[in-house]
Amino acid sequence: MRAPQDIIIAPLITEKTTNLMAENKYTFIVAPDANKIEIKQAVEKLFNVKVEKVNTLKDRGKMRRMGRFEGRQSDRKKAIVTLKPGYKIPIFEGLE
Questions:
Q1: Domain that holds residue 33
Q2: CA torsion angle for 64, 65, 69, 75 (degrees, to 10)?
Q3: Is residue 92 situated within a structural domain?
Q4: Of the residues 25, 33, 34, 40, which has the fewest C-beta atoms closer than 10 A?
Q5: In which order are the strands placed within the sheet that holds 51-59?
């Protein structure tokens, strides 16, 4: 089994995800090969909370140009984690 730090890469903080926090939903960038069960166990272990459900989606990287050079950003996988009522993640506290 992998360590939770290998599964949860970083929290994703945008205007849209900040609005989701009112519904007790938190968004993370996760390892591309992680499944919902691993994500649930990693969040519960890292933040000491109870997870109700996990939704995942894959984000394809956008095409970018620098002058005549073309490239693309990396693909990434996001997870929207819904916590059970009464639980909060402390690193997101000042953002709501």
A1: 4-86
A2: -10
A3: no
A4: 33
A5: 8-11, 25-30, 76-83, 51-59
Residue with tokens 């009522």: 85
Beta bridge mates, 27: 80
Residue whose C-alpha is closest to residue 25's, from 75, 88, 70, 71:
88
Whether residue 94 has pLDDT greater than 90 = no
Residue 12 covered by a domain: yes
**With contact defined as beta carbons under 8 Å apart, do 25 and 85 qualify?**
no
Q: Looking at the domain assignment, is residue 31 inside a domain?
A: yes
Whole-prediction pTM: 0.87
Core vs surface per residue 17-40: b (16+ CB within 10 A) or e? beeebeebbbbbebbeebeeebbb
Secondary structure element (H or E) that encloses residue 17, with its range: helix 15-20
CATH number of the domain that 60 lies in? 3.30.70.330
In 3D space, the residue among 1, 24, 26, 32 whose CA is nearest the CA of residue 11 turns out to be 26
Domain assignment present for residue 80? The answer is yes
Total count of domains within the chain: 1
